[in-house]
Amino acid sequence: MVAFRIVKGVNRGDPATLDSLRSNYELGARPRGLEIESALIHLGLSMYLSLEMVTASAQRWPQIGRRIAEVHLLPENGFCYADTAQPGHVTVWGRPLQLLACVVDILSVGD
C-alpha cells in the first residue's frame, strides 16, 4: 500500500523526518481529535491514500510540516493500518525506523 505522511524533514537522513514518523504518544504530545477518544489512535500515525488529500492538509496546517513523504507500506514489515476519520485517511501503526526505510520520496508541499 502507498500512503502519504506530512513530515518536517527534507530527506530520509534528516532527524526531523524520523521524528515525523513517531506517534504523538511517542513524542509525548497530548491527545487531540480522535486521539482523545481512542488511545489506539494516539499510538498511530495519520496518513493519506492520495497526494491531493495530504497536500490539502499540509497547506491547511503548515505547522505539522511543509513536506510530504511517500511511504510504501509492505505488510511483511509488521505495519498495521485502519481506515479512520474521512475516506482516504488511514491510521498506521509501525516502528519509526521501519517506516523510514519505506520512504521512497519526500516532496515539498505543492510540488
> Percent of residues in beta strands?
25-35%
Q: Strand pairing plus helix content: what structural class?
A: alpha+beta
Based on the coordinates given, report the CATH architecture.
Answer: Alpha-Beta Barrel
Return the domain count: 1
**Order of strands in the sheet with most strands:** 1-3-6
Low-confidence stretches: none
Total strand segments: 6
Helical content class: 25-40%
Mean pLDDT: 95
State the distance separating the first and last CA atoms.
Answer: 22 Å
Biggest sheet architecture: 3 strands, antiparallel
Q: What is the CATH class name?
A: Alpha Beta
What is the CATH topology assignment?
Answer: ADP-ribosylation fold
Element-by-element helix/strand order: EHHHHEHEEEHE
Give Rg in angstroms.
Answer: 13 Å
Task: Write up this protein.
- With 111 residues, the protein is an alpha+beta fold.
- The chain has one domain (2-108): Alpha-Beta Barrel (ADP-ribosylation fold).
- The chain is 30% helix and 28% strand.
- The chain is built from 6 helices and 6 strands, in the order βααααβαβββαβ.
- The protein has a 3-stranded antiparallel β-sheet. The protein has a 3-stranded antiparallel β-sheet with strand order 2-5-4.
- β4 (80-83) and β5 (89-93) form a beta hairpin.
List the helices and strands and how they pair.
Elements: E1 2-7, H1 15-19, H2 24-27, H3 34-37, H4 39-42, E2 45-48, H5 51-60, E3 67-72, E4 80-83, E5 89-93, H6 96-101, E6 103-108
Antiparallel strand pairs: 1-3, 2-5, 3-6, 4-5
